[in-house]
Structure formats: C-alpha cells, structure tokens
Design a protein that fits this description.
Structural class: alpha+beta
Number of helices: 4
CATH topology of the largest domain: PH-domain like
Radius of gyration: 20 Å
CATH class of the largest domain: Mainly Beta
Strand content: 15-25%
Strand order of the largest sheet: 1-2-3-4
Distance between the termini: 20 Å
Length: about 160
C-alpha cells in the first residue's frame, strides 16, 4: 500500500524487500525444468518446452508475489500483510544467527508472529504492547537489522 492509498499512512521512512534466497530461486527453476524434461520425454519435446516454460513463469510469479516487504511510515510498521501502529511497538531486540535460530524454535512463544526468510541470518524481535493483540512479539528477518531498528526508533519519535 502506498501512502496515497490510505489516509492512515504517512511518509515512508524505510522499505526493505525480503527476497527469497538464491537457493530458493535455483530450486524453483531446477524443479520446473525437471517437470518440462519429464513431460518432454513422455509426450514429446514441444509439450515439454511448453510445460517447463509455463511452470517456470508460474514459479517466478509465485516467488515474486510471496516476497514480503518491510515498511515503516510515520504511523505504522508493516511486514508483509501484517500492520501495527508504531505506538504499540515496544522494545526492539536484534538477534544474531544462533539467537535467531533458538528464538524461532525452542524459545518461541506459541502466539508469536513470524516473518522469516531463509538465507537471512539476523532477525529482530519487536515487542507488541497492544493488549488486544494476540501476538506478544513479532520476529522478522532483515538484511539490515541495525538500520531497521534505528529507523523504527526514529519513526516512533515522530509521533
């Protein structure tokens, strides 16, 4: 959503796309090429090329559509489709690779909100202070966790 699409959105102060890892792109293309080869072997090369190409296009579009965006504006913090007013964001903690792994597995809260991407080692945990929200915290991946935490603190200072 752009700032002009919502009356509650303000000037965007930070944006980050959580693109799938290179491994995910490679896996998707290998699998769709394999599908094309299998169809080509069974039903002829022309159908194999058509099926392989169509499957590749669908896989690429699916990966693009599933790419989450982190966005901070003057009023909201948004990760993918989840949105939280800045006033309800509490403490922010940056986790390294080991802490991130532990926080999303053995130490995870059953009601936490996760937006994680493979290939991104560091995550942030954002405390949610809204008592009506079922999620006690959000754990999100970020390629720039220090900058994200800084921009979030600055945006909270705007309000």
């Amino acid at each position: 959503m752009t700032p002009s699409e919502s009356s509650s959105a303000g000037q965007v102060v930070y944006t980050e796309r959580l693109w799938p890892s290179i491994g995910m792109w490679f896996f998707a293309l290998v699998m769709t090429a394999s599908l094309g080869i299998a169809y080509g072997r069974a039903y002829g090369i022309n159908l194999g090329v058509i099926v392989g190409t169509a499957a590749s296009v669908i896989a690429i579009l699916g990966l693009l559509k599933s790419t989450a965006t982190i966005r901070i504006d003057e009023f909201n913090f948004q990760v993918g489709r989840a949105r939280m007013p800045l006033e309800f964001i509490g403490q922010v903690q940056i986790l390294d690779q080991q802490e991130s792994r532990r926080a999303r597995s053995t130490d995870a809260h059953k009601d936490a909100y996760f937006q994680l991407r493979g290939g991104i080692e560091q995550t942030l945990i954002l405390e949610i202070t809204d008592t009506s929200d079922p999620h006690p915290y959000w754990q999100i991946s970020s390629r720039n966790p220090k900058i994200l935490a800084q921009k979030l603190a600055e945006a909270k200072g705007i309000n």
